[in-house]
Amino acid sequence: MRGAKSATWVAGAIVVALGATACGGGSSASAEPGVVRANWGDPQNPLEPANTNEVLGGKVLDMIFSNLKSYDPKTGEAKNDVAQSIDTKDQQTFTIKVKKGEKFSNGEPVTARSFVDAWNYGALATNAQKNSYFFADIKGYDKVAPAEGKPTAKTLSGLKVVDDHTFTVTLTEKMSTWPLRLGYKAFAPLPKTFFSDHDGYLAKPVGNGPYAVDSYDKGKQMKLVPNTHYAGDDKPQNKGVLLKVYTDSNAAYADLQSGNLDVDDDVPAEQIRNAKSDLKGRYLSQPAGVNQVVTFPLYKDSWNKPGMEKVRKGLSMAIDRKAITEKVYNGTRTPATDLTSPVLGDANGYSKDICGDTCTYNPTEAKKLIKEGGGLPGGKMTISYNADKDSHKQWVDAVCNSINTVLGDDKACVGNPVGTFGDFRNQITKQEMVQPFRAGWQMDYPQIENFLTPLYATGGASNDAKFSDPKFDALLKQAGAEPDVKKATDLYKQAEKIVLDQAVSIPLWYQNGTAGWSEHVSGVQLNAFSLPVFTQIKVKG
């Protein structure tokens, strides 16, 4: 996702899970009683669960939808939510029972059909949903989303409604880890109005989560109110959330300090050093399932011709991650040693050493590899980033300075700011990038597979590099079919090593989630995806 949330990128989901906020709408000193005012930015796409794979849209979907599974805010552990039970005897066919009494914000009951119809819609190629691949493991996906040609079926043969609150899912192969992903919002249920009045839904999305969309003024704000029909355990402790759009993260931080904003989970890098004192202790920083990388456009021959893997690896070795994280981020980033995140832990695929030399600063070897590989294309390179997030310029400049120092050329690498987050992402998805660009991932669910399949599998929805490797794809398939979770994780690590050896992306650092809050609220915490747990925030007075 964002990406991870998606993850996102967490998934994720959270691409970006690409961690990019936002815009600069006006602020108001007055606050609506009981309502939390929070920093936000317009999402890239309309809020369809299967079509949202970036963090800004994912933040809203997490608030207005509840899934079969949810993830513990502190540990990321998957647990049943709307699902009463998820059972299997063979790790391939799953029987899912939906809790009775669940409703959408328009009063419509949540049923087994709500999930089956939503998943069929998300999978069907003609609906062009970015997260379609999440349904690829369900039997019949090759018919509704064939690699070539038009679909020969409109629904997944592996989905069957048994009764109002029971359905079955048959996968193409055994997959013991499959239920873990069911907390990702691509698997959210959809109300009947999504299909009968699609335009109406897009204008005002209807979900089954703790909050409901009250209004949305693009470029300014979205107001969410408690969903009066919500039947789950995570009931809001406030009267709603006002998501305010900012184009300047420093403007948001200034509003936070002046009391015109209540929650800011995008504290600018240059403010982090003093945030705790500025906010009188109302600040937290904690590990999150988010990473940052520099990705190469492998669809351009200049970066993918024979020998360029040495150049890409050399560039990675030319980056002094430790110095940059300390200077730019004041300890809220940790140099990366793999493509996942430490919050996964060893059991779910995190590795302290799999990246090896590729992620180790070595100026002499870096310069040697870049020369052996033929040097930078045209003798120069840029790193593109979205210009509406001030902190990106800081680290991109720092990375380029590190590379330039190694190469002895202060003009070899420069940053390339690209408009807004939406502009930036559109250039990436249209394959218009000709030089490396910043990317990141916010996990969608806490498992190594989520940091690999979306980003590096052939045809993956967030495979921005357009990387393709038969051995990598085969290992993903083998791991997915492995019923033993530990053995499956080891296979995923073997696949990860292929990506690292080819330096498809340069792992930079793991991101801490940070948040500051005003004196008007209490109970602020971040979940494992680095997003505020809005339902638990209380407004004083």
Automatic annotation (TrEMBL):
Q: Which Pfam families match?
A: SBP_bac_5 (PF00496)
Extract the Gene3D superfamilies matched here: Dipeptide-binding Protein, Domain 1 (3.90.76.10), Dipeptide-binding Protein, Domain 3 (3.10.105.10), Periplasmic binding protein-like II (3.40.190.10)
Signal in keyword set: yes
Q: Where is the Solute-binding protein family domain positioned along the sequence?
A: 79-462
From which residue to which does the signal peptide run? Answer: 1-22
Q: Which UniProt keywords apply?
A: Signal
Q: What is this protein called?
A: ABC transporter substrate-binding protein
Q: Which InterPro entries match?
A: Peptide/Ni-bd (IPR030678), SBP_5 (IPR039424), SBP_5_dom (IPR000914)
